[in-house]
Design goal:
Blueprint: H1 2-13, H2 33-53, H3 59-85, H4 91-116, H5 127-144, H6 153-159, H7 162-189, E1 194-196, H8 197-213, H9 227-232, E2 235-237, H10 240-263, H11 288-291
Antiparallel strand pairs: 1-2
């Protein structure tokens, strides 16, 4: 339930942004128009998220991606439950799916908080990513929310084709898994990641203690920051233990989202046409199936701290 309030706050915070769009972008009155707008905004978001993450992203970009993915996951819960209550999808599937989606939402929210620790007052988010996120929030609000709360199932059904929108959102879960894997690769490999010295002192020490408890001795007695760096709280490159925490957090996101995809497998949509441009701009690397990380993987390096 808290996760849903967090998502409503995201939508409410963006309410004034609706006024920026011209009349052609205002919520349509015809049934189906908000669903079309949502699908278009979702495709644009997926494309832009991949583009941004492929182009030396900063911590602020990772925060934005994680927050929007958390919002999308909560939106999927709301739409799925509305469809189930109106008898338009199987209630049993929804009962299995909702807890998995809520776990995925919490994992993305933890990821956002962890990346936010790396930001400084000088951090900037890709303007194109901000725009795509804003358009998606407007589309979600138009389809499934009121000014301060989620719409009722009957209200949602009056605005969108519930079964079709459920399937659109569930298909987006597959891309959510891919974004989690890309986030993990960035945490592991991005040479430009840095954080304020005090955060590094806290996180690196915590992750080093976890590693030592698991039998790794190479971190014993290592000082990750100097007293002068801590006093100035200057940004410094992430040492390995701090990266380990980010990797573990992204691993949790991938595992939780994979579970949500599996829980949705019993939904049987008609074969959809692929969304135009959904595969463009993706970060080069291994296929998602090759990168899949089981929930209880033996090499995950312990829980994030």
């Amino acid at each position: 339930m808290i996760a849903r309030f967090d998502a409503v706050e995201q939508l409410a915070a963006g309410f004034l942004a609706v006024q920026r769009f011209d009349a052609a972008d205002q919520p349509a009155t015809g049934r189906g128009r908000p669903a079309m707008r949502l699908e278009a905004a979702l495709a644009a978001w997926e494309l832009q998220a991949h583009r941004t993450l492929a182009n030396q992203p900063g911590a602020a970009d990772l925060v934005r991606v994680a927050r929007v993915q958390a919002l999308l996951t909560t939106t999927t819960v709301v739409v799925s439950e509305a469809a189930a209550r109106r008898g338009e999808i199987d209630v049993g599937v929804t009962r299995r799916l909702t807890p998995a989606l809520e776990n995925a939402q919490l994992a993305w929210s933890r990821s956002a908080r962890r990346w936010a620790e790396l930001t400084t007052p000088a951090s900037r988010t890709d303007p194109a990513l901000i725009e795509a996120a804003g358009q998606l929030r407007v589309a979600i609000r138009s389809a499934v929310a009121n000014q301060t709360s989620w719409a009722t199932p009957d209200e949602i059904a009056g605005r969108i084709d519930l079964p079709a929108t459920v399937m659109t959102l569930h298909r987006s879960l597959v891309d959510s898994v891919e974004l989690a894997y890309i986030t993990r690769e960035i945490a592991a490999d991005h040479p430009g990641l840095a954080a304020p010295a005090r955060i590094i002192a806290m996180r690196a020490q915590g992750e080093a203690e976890v590693a030592i408890e698991q039998g790794e001795t190479r971190f014993e007695g290592v000082r990750w920051v100097t007293p002068q760096q801590i006093a100035a709280n200057q940004p410094i490159p992430l040492p390995e233990p701090a990266r380990r925490g980010l990797i573990n957090t992204a691993t949790e996101v991938a595992a939780a989202t994979n579970q949500a995809v599996a829980a949705a497998a019993d939904l049987k949509p008609t074969e959809p046409a692929p969304r135009a441009g959904a595969g463009g701009g993706r970060r080069a690397g291994r296929a998602a199936a090759d990168r899949e990380i089981p929930v209880h993987h033996p090499n995950r390096g312990g829980p994030p701290r």
